[in-house]
Amino acid sequence: LGPAWRSRAGPRTSPPSSPSFRCPNMKLTKRQFTQALAASLLPLGQARAQAFPNHPLQLVIPFPPGGATDVAGRLIGKKLGERLGQAVVIDNRAGAGTVVGATVVANAPADGYTLLLSSGSTFTLNPALNPRLPYDPVKSFEPIGMAARAPMAVLVNKQVPIDTLKQLVTAVKQAPDRYAYASFGSGTSSHFAGELVWSALGIKLLHVPYKGSAPAMSDLIGGQVPISIDTVAAALPHVRNGKIKVIALTGPHRSPLLPEVPTVAESTGTDFAFDAWLALMAPRGLPADARQRLQVALAESLSDNELRDKLQAAGMQKDWASATAVSQLIDAELPRMRAIAQRAGIQAE
């Protein structure tokens, strides 16, 4: 091996004996010892290589950039990355009412590195309208936890003399063919919310579907349509500058951004509740360690006050709930959405 094995005065000698190179019944060469040592350390090396996560994660958002879900996803993804010690890369995969993005995640490896942040549209509304989706809302996904809720609102053009749900009911009953409402698309959460509200009030309004929130809001402000259903996040800037009115919220609680606006439940004396919710999902079949790490990271992220404040400023409310609670919500909401779709004749675009 070198000069240390040579006598200064004579030729190369045999290596010195060492207990490290001996077994009871045999002697190991240096090469054999090295191979044995490497083999003994292999399980440790494999365990380190497999520790989750050891490279960046992909968070698929099935909506275009700039919308409420995209804003929430970027805020939550940043906090998740801090907790996990890896970057969380946002991947907007909009299309077909969240079907495109949901399908990407449903078909991804179940290793915890591909996640989906999506709304009830993916898990209860689309399945209520289409029994032949390229994914199964239950079997294809594994819930990590609830992340946030986006309350929806009944909005009225500022020139329309309606300021409460009671006044709306009276006006519609007096002129049943006069009033229509806008949603941001047939089969979307705003369409379902509208039909649920009108059913609770015992009235019927003509549905006018738009291709997104922005054009629906533009026509509401311009007076082309008198009423619409949209998220608080989308409505808030226009409410604050006096262009539209909010007469009720569809969620179970009042919004801290609009504390003076009552809920549909308060106005009707019922337990009515419907809002847009966001859950973090993974492909079904996660390894136990990845599942636990993701669930803890999400819970810790949503306990962060900075994240809470930023979500609230964007018109959303943080609303952590366990994976089990998400599964129970889907199980309860899916038959309800199927019933309202059949009763109101809701069809996907």
Roughly what percent helix? 40-55%
- Per the principal axes of the C-alpha atoms, what is the gross shape? globular
Radius of gyration: 29 Å
**SSE order, one letter for each helix or strand:** EEHEHEHEHEEHEHEHEHEHEHHEH
Percent strand: 15-25%
Largest sheet: 6 strands, mixed
Number of strands: 13
Instruction: Record the strand order, biggest sheet.
Output: 4-3-5-12-6-13
Mean pLDDT equals 87
Tell me the distance between the termini.
Answer: 77 Å
Query: What low-confidence regions span 5 or more consecutive residues with pLDDT below 50?
Result: 1-26, 44-48
Summarize the structure.
By secondary structure, this protein is an alpha/beta fold. Helices cover 43% and strands 19% of the residues.
What does this structure look like?
Helix 2 crosses helix 10 and helix 4 packs parallel to helix 12. The radius of gyration is 29 Å and the shape is globular. The strands form 3 sheets. Strands 4-3-5-12-6-13 form a 6-stranded mixed β-sheet, sandwiched between helices. Strands 9-8-10-7-11 form a 5-stranded mixed β-sheet. A two-stranded antiparallel sheet has the order 1-2. It contains 12 helices and 13 strands. 43% of the residues lie in helices and 19% in strands. It is α/β, with parallel strands linked by helices and 349 residues long. A hairpin with a 2-residue loop joins strand 1 and strand 2.
